From TrEMBL:
UniProt domain Replication protein A 70 kDa DNA-binding subunit B/D first OB fold: residue ranges: 4-81
Name the UniProt record assigns to this protein: BnaC02g26060D protein
InterPro entries: NA-bd_OB-fold (IPR012340), RFA1B/D_OB_1st (IPR003871)
Domain of life where this protein originates: Eukaryota
A Pfam family this chain is assigned to: DUF223
Length: 86
């Protein structure tokens, strides 16, 4: 059985190299930057099985990594993120 982190566990910690979440995407909406005039970028409202909610906005060079996620509204998805260690 896969271990999933909880959204409530998210904090800045240099020792943590990866996160694995199972979340439900409650709402997705486009975000346009009025400063740079770029967009649309996507903002996601996520909730885990404990009911903890988080907002995540994807923009810039990270958009390709999450391509297709905007079609998953109302579904449970797995998000796995690995951070580069120094």
């Amino acid at each position: 059985m896969t271990h999933y982190n909880r959204l409530s566990e998210v904090s800045y910690n240099e020792e943590i190299a990866s996160w694995r979440f199972r979340v439900k995407i409650h709402r997705i909406y486009p975000f346009y930057s009025y400063v740079t005039g770029s967009g649309p970028h996507w903002t996601y409202i996520l909730a885990d099985e404990d009911g903890t909610k988080m907002e995540m906005t994807i923009y810039g060079r990270y958009e390709d990594r999450f391509r297709g996620l905007e079609k998953q509204e109302g579904k449970w998805v797995e998000i796995f993120r690995i951070f580069r260690c120094k």
